[in-house]
């Protein structure tokens, strides 16, 4: 991977050049039978979203030169490429987190690879703690907006020289989460008979890997945060920079403590277990969204949403 403009070779945020992104995109395209239109990033415990993909081809991250590898339990570390509800998709079973030691530009590299491959939509999922006291474990929060605490200090995947082929120097973040897709997801939730489970809210990206203190949760609540996690915002910043349409949701896997009398002890095994227990609902929501995009584009979605089991 080429590192641009790093005089010492020790810069943490190494720029990844357009040529390096294109080399990865070309490598993947040369190995697959379809040209994906939708990219999917599966959150912790949500890797089985890919089970509905037909004619699937799997590529392990370790077999893609220049691609990072997953190190977190619940993130398998492979691409699954095939057809879903009438559209060609590329799904990531496993994402890259800042706390794993990768700079943000590398954590979000797959999003740029997707763009250069010709992908138009990015669907992102994550596991998150429920800061909003009305949220229950198992709820699904459609992400309307985010607070990127990691970015407040200038730690951005866009830091460093900007290559206009990947997007503008100063991208706006208004409507980074496509409002029309959120509206559609609310209709889909009604069709599925789960309007009470589906919320709309603000996600907050913290660096992790520790879960939050009670004081931090109280502060996030005051700041208007509904759910807290350790991913997604940097991916969406890059997606908005390069012009992908984004739909994202959080599965609330645990409740965050706002009260010293009601302590909660988050743990990753529980996060993954809640993900697995809600996988069919999350999969159905995702499939129905893709089916509606297929219908809009005039692609033939399957007669039934094949993802309800
Ligand atoms: O990849 P996501 O954001 O779904 O994973 C969350 C955040 C941490 O990686 C992990 C904590 O349990 O789950």
TrEMBL record:
GO-annotated biological processes: nucleoside metabolic process
GO cellular component, one term: cytoplasm
Enzyme class: transferase
Catalytic activity from the UniProt record: inosine + phosphate = alpha-D-ribose 1-phosphate + hypoxanthine; 2'-deoxyguanosine + phosphate = 2-deoxy-alpha-D-ribose 1-phosphate + guanine; guanosine + phosphate = alpha-D-ribose 1-phosphate + guanine; 2'-deoxyinosine + phosphate = 2-deoxy-alpha-D-ribose 1-phosphate + hypoxanthine
InterPro entries hit by this protein: Nucleoside_phosphorylase_d, Nucleoside_phosphorylase_sf, Pur_Nuc_Pase_Ino/Guo-sp, Purine_phosphorylase
Binding site for a purine D-ribonucleoside: 212, 254
Binding site for phosphate: 44, 75, 95-97, 127, 231
E.C. numbers: 2.4.2.1
Recorded GO MF terms: purine-nucleoside phosphorylase activity
Domain of life (superkingdom): Eukaryota
Residue intervals of the Nucleoside phosphorylase domain: 38-290
Alphabetized UniProt keyword annotations: Glycosyltransferase, Transferase
Pfam families membership: PNP_UDP_1
Entries under SUPFAM superfamilies matching the protein: Purine and uridine phosphorylases (SSF53167)
Family (UniProt): Belongs to the PNP/MTAP phosphorylase family.
Role noted for this protein: The purine nucleoside phosphorylases catalyze the phosphorolytic breakdown of the N-glycosidic bond in the beta-(deoxy)ribonucleoside molecules, with the formation of the corresponding free purine bases and pentose-1-phosphate.
NCBIfam families: PNPH (TIGR01700), PNPH-PUNA-XAPA (TIGR01697), PRK08202.1 (NF006054)
Protein's UniProt name: Purine nucleoside phosphorylase
Gene responsible for this protein: PNPH
């Amino acid at each position: 991977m080429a590192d641009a403009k790093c005089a010492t070779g020790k810069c943490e945020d190494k720029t990844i050049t357009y040529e390096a992104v294109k080399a990865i995109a070309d490598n993947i395209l040369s190995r697959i039978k379809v040209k994906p239109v939708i990219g999917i990033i599966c959150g912790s415990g949500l890797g089985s979203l890919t089970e509905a993909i037909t004619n699937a081809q799997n590529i392990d991250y370790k077999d893609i030169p220049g691609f990072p590898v997953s190190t977190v339990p619940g993130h398998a570390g492979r691409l699954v490429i095939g057809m879903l509800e009438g559209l060609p998709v590329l799904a990531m079973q496993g994402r890259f987190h800042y706390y794993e030691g990768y700079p943000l530009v590398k954590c979000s590299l797959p999003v740029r690879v997707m763009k250069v491959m010709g992908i138009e939509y990015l669907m992102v999922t994550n596991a998150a703690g429920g800061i909003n006291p009305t949220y229950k474990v198992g709820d699904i929060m459609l992400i309307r907006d985010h607070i990127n605490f990691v970015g407040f200090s200038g730690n951005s995947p866009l830091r460093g020289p900007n290559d206009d082929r990947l997007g503008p120097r100063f991208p706006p973040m208004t409507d980074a989460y496509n409002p029309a897709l959120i509206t559609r997801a609310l209709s889909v939730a009604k069709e599925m008979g789960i309007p009470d489970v589906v919320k709309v809210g603000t996600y907050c990206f913290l660096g992790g890997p520790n879960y939050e203190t009670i004081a931090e949760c109280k502060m996030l609540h005051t700041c208007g945060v509904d759910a807290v996690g350790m991913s997604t915002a940097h991916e969406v910043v890059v997606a908005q920079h390069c012009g992908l349409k984004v739909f994202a949701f959080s599965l609330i896997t645990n409740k965050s403590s706002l009260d010293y009398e009601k302590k909660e002890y988050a743990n990753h095994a529980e996060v993954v277990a809640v993900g697995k227990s809600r996988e069919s609902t999350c999969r159905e929501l995702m499939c129905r969204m893709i089916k509606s995009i297929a219908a809009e584009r005039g692609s033939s979605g399957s007669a039934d949403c094949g993802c309800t089991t």
